[in-house]
Amino acid sequence: MNLPFKALSDPTRRKIIMLLKEKDLTAGEIAEHFNMTKPSISHHLSILKQADLVSDERKGQNIYYSLNTTVFQELINWFFEIIDYNEGVNRDENR
Amino acid sequence: MNLPFKALSDPTRRKIIMLLKEKDLTAGEIAEHFNMTKPSISHHLSILKQADLVSDERKGQNIYYSLNTTVFQELINWFFEIIDYNEGVNRDENR
DNA sequence: TAGATATTTAGACAATATTCTAAATATCTA
DNA sequence: TAGATATTTAGAATATTGTCTAAATATCTA
Questions:
Q1: Using an 8 Å Cβ cutoff, are A24 and A66 in contact?
Q2: A9 touches chain B (CB under 8 A)
Q3: Which residue in chain B is spatially nearest to A18 when comparing CA positions?
Q4: What digits encode the pLDDT tens for the residues B26-54?
């Protein structure tokens, strides 16, 4: 749970996530949205990948990035725990 | 939205949140749970406070810290947007 | 009011993170 | 296979963050 939180702590990476929410994009297309070099964006993508928040797939010369919703679900569960949301969720208290 | 994400990126601060989820605690009681000096914990508390994730209230010599669920709700909404959860939420698509 | 307790503030230092340029790797196409 | 395009890797510079010690502030009580 540490890597995803670290990954989300940077605004550039959160913006990348917002872009990928709309549709899958190549590393180059992502870079176009930022005032930053491609190696820097590549580094951010690598951190998102390590955190398992995105996945990548090469198609010819391009590498397409896409969102990995699984870890986001886990994060949402973490937050629910904080605010003690427990309707419909398996919890000892409900048994 | 930047401060809360930054605040949550540190494991010590997330552990503090987990402690406060159970009950309000003084700065000293919080510090007892960590292998770290009190000034360091105080600094972490200050970051959580700036991010509006916790609030503090002095009672005599002690300062009690407690969780501020509002910002957590906003964070959950941010995550819902990512995974495109939109039941019961006001969205253009539903109009 | 002096001393004890709880906590924060200030300032320094080391560890991490972000960004850059230059170079390397992978793939496509003429 | 040579050159073009897309992307990553390596390494360095700078900025930010986390932690510490020492000192300051606030409150309580004898």
A1: yes
A2: yes
A3: B82
A4: 999 999 999 999 999 999 999 999 999 99
